[in-house]
Amino acid sequence: MASPFTIEEIYPDDGDDAPRLPRRQAGSSPQDLAVTLLADYTLRHRARIPSAALVALLAESGVSTAGARAAISRLARRGVLEGSREGRRSSYRISRAAAANLSGGGRWILAATTDVAAWDGCWTIVAFSLPQDRSTQRRALRGQLRWLGYAPLYDGLWISPYELSAQGRAQLARFTLGAVTVFRGPQAALDVIGQRAPIDAWDIEAIGRHYEEFLRRWTPLVPSLRSGGVDGAAAVRARTEVMDTFRRFPTLDPRLPLDLLPAGWLRQPARELFEAVYDGLAEPAARHVRSVVARFADGAQPDIQAHTTADLLAGVRDAEPAPERDGASATVESCAT
């Protein structure tokens, strides 16, 4: 299931020195896969993995040797990975900045698809006007708004059901330089034909199809993983793919209020299925990653561990917090106050 969003929108840059995570392509790029693999098994201790082992793991997902080595090199140049060399052996680990970002991002993915917040009936509106010759700035602003959970109701007017946080305001200020206005309030009903509801800024039918496709793809696997029938490279491939797909839902569906959505909205069933697959494959996948790494490293690799969804919610490691995402822990007050 391809997503229209880039990984920068899921784990955005934080200033000039932040790691630049890879752009989303149709399907999973080698860089996507490498980041997911390293985050899923080395994030807790920032364990180092020999480059040859990472190439071998990526090969199990169909990435060529040349493609894997190019992806590793690009991630190192972007500051996502840190390299080291001992003799002729090179190894890589997630950089401290990328680890902090990924840890916070993992926590947000689970919180954003688990927490249920009441809605006060108000909308936050962000209106901006940028000249045509500032197209790069306009694209960056739109990406940031999408990341914060906003969608375009009209060109230059984006909305969200949740308050814009102080950190979100600061992030927008970096992109607009005064060319933006933010306000919040309820929708005023008009007795006209064709009035557009704010929820129409999101393609609800398309989001629903993404959920349905996710359920169709992963539900048949549950009996096999519960019986221990998924092991080795298959377990790693499945766990990587399910994370790579599920982590896009909080951006597609930024905790839209359930009372505005069709009955039987599939956000929670998708969340429960993700937990069953991701947690159910944790141990067999980690065993396989350790076995592959052991072929290229000296001795056991106890720092290679798989975390669960509970670990993600608790925070996989003591890292600096990732950027705040609006609506992740909204409190309900009257929008008139």
From TrEMBL:
The UniProt entry's GO biological process terms, in alphabetical order, are: DNA-templated transcription
Positions of the Transcriptional repressor PaaX-like central Cas2-like domain: 117-186
* Pfam families per UniProt: PaaX, PaaX_C, PaaX_M
Stored InterPro entries: PaaX-like_central, PaaX-like_N, PaaX_C, PaaX_trns_reg, WH-like_DNA-bd_sf
Q: The Transcriptional repressor PaaX-like N-terminal domain covers which part of the protein?
A: 32-96
Q: Where is this region: Disordered?
A: 1-28
Specify the Transcriptional repressor PaaX-like C-terminal domain's residue ranges: 202-290
Checking PANTHER family in the record gives: PHENYLACETIC ACID REGULATOR-RELATED TRANSCRIPTIONAL REPRESSOR, TRANSCRIPTIONAL REPRESSOR PAAX
Q: What is this protein called?
A: Phenylacetic acid-responsive transcriptional regulator
